[in-house]
Amino acid sequence: MNDSLIYSDLAGLFEKWAGEPVINTEPLPAHGSDRRYFRLSGQSRRAIGAFNPDRKENMAFIEFSRHFKGCSLPVPEIYSVDLDRNIYIEQDLGDETLFSFLSRVRTDHHFPEQVLQIYRKVLLELPRFQLEASRDLDFSVCYPRARFDRQSMMWDLNYFKYYFLKLAKISFDEQALEDDFGTLVNYLLSTEMDYFLYRDFQSRNIMIVDGQPYFIDYQGGRRGALQYDLASLLYDAKADIPQPVRDLLLNEYSTLLQEKYNIPAGQFKQYYFGYVFIRLMQALGAYGFRGFYERKSHFLKSVPFAIQNLEWLLNNVTLPVAMPALEKAWLGIVRSSFLRQLGDVHLNMNVRIQSFSYKRGIPLDDKGHGGGFVFDCRFLPNPGRLDEFKNLTGNDQPVIEFLQKEAGVGHFLEQVQSMMRGVVSNYQARNFTDLMIAFGCTGGQHRSVYCANQLAGFFEKLPNVSVQLRHREQEMK
């Protein structure tokens, strides 16, 4: 339908509701769907007019909106509907989304306290949708399916396979990948699935009105697991929530479920990261379809952020099911320079530095790209040979002063730092976000510890770099 007909139909519906004609019509940005939105203004009233050619989707949104409003949930009021013309008008909640608010007040990778407080308000409302409003919700209007069941999950996984993996040229064994999809789905289906699943619970679908969150775009809702919506919100790609904030909000939400709704926090967390993975794959499929297939390049700007999330998951999460083909595909995504450089994006870089003893072997970079740097400190003067230093480590001031006086140690660290400047510059230009560096010596207590500490201090002064430091042998005592 062309714009003039949509304008005419919406203007007529607005006038019947408002009792006054439309004097201004403002098209609103369309995102990833065929829905069209317009801000309609009269002399004294205004509303959002919506056109969506999908009648069943309209019915789901309208029924859910009316039900949620009846439950006193903060959703837009539906003013008037004409399903025969695929249009409706609803409350105008303004233009500020949670994402735009975050983008406006955020500086660099800092996550402001005022944003954290909004996220906390959001998470207080989420279980009201999932548990309270779901008790007498008419799930028969759900579209396209009434449950996030095996079929729904396989649709998402194949969306990821055909519109992301194939179009991004990530190689995979199709049968082995299908087998792993089945393994993942079986695992996810083993948790409780009888709640309202919002489906697209992310920062662009949360409006901020006078400092309070309002919720939109839940027309894809259906029965499902609690974990999916929290995964959608906290791993929303371009929102780029720092991992410590994600951990904090996960703990607060799971505690709320336990204290108010008698759902054990451990039970919720047991399946949480499995749903993070499937939501991330669904999002990548959407970015691939809109970006690679439909050639809407702005969708591809989210890909590097999604890869950063995937890399963190691979580094830190182990699911209790084996999926070798799927994990190989994930690693192919993480290691792709092409995918990391889509869009004008500059990601934060994580540098993992550790000390170790050669007696226990060189540490493997099984969490990153399978590479990194290992520096041998055994040629440096060894304070561990001196009795006064034997029971000390490179963390102790007497050992630090001893090594600082050795010219060879300082020269060695200058060379390492010079090399790392070039590496960091190269990695940041390519949006690679993970680098491992290890220092080894005979016992892993003195020289390697000192050098690791010194390099960590060097990296901490660089912009857009975070450092993780560990001393392996001291941890193993």
Key traits:
single chain, 477 residues, alpha/beta, Phosphorylase Kinase, domain 1, Aminoglycoside 3'-phosphotransferase, Chain: A, domain 2, 4-stranded parallel β-sheet, 13 strands
Task: Report strand order across the widest sheet.
Answer: 1-2-3-5-4
The total domain count is: 3
Q: Order of helices and strands, N to C? A: HEEEHEEHHHHEEEEHHHHHHEEHHEHEH
Helix fraction bin: 40-55%
CATH architecture of the largest domain: Alpha-Beta Complex
CATH class descriptor name of the largest domain? Alpha Beta
Structural class designation: alpha/beta
Q: N-to-C terminal Cα separation, in Å? A: 71 Å
Count of separate DSSP helical elements: 16
CATH topology of the largest domain, by name, is Aminoglycoside 3'-phosphotransferase, Chain: A, domain 2
Question: What do we call the CATH homologous superfamily of the largest domain?
Answer: Aminoglycoside phosphotransferase (APH), C-terminal lobe
- Overall mean pLDDT score? 94
Uncertain spans, ≥5 residues at pLDDT below 50? none
Number of strands: 13
> Strand portion, in percent?
5-15%
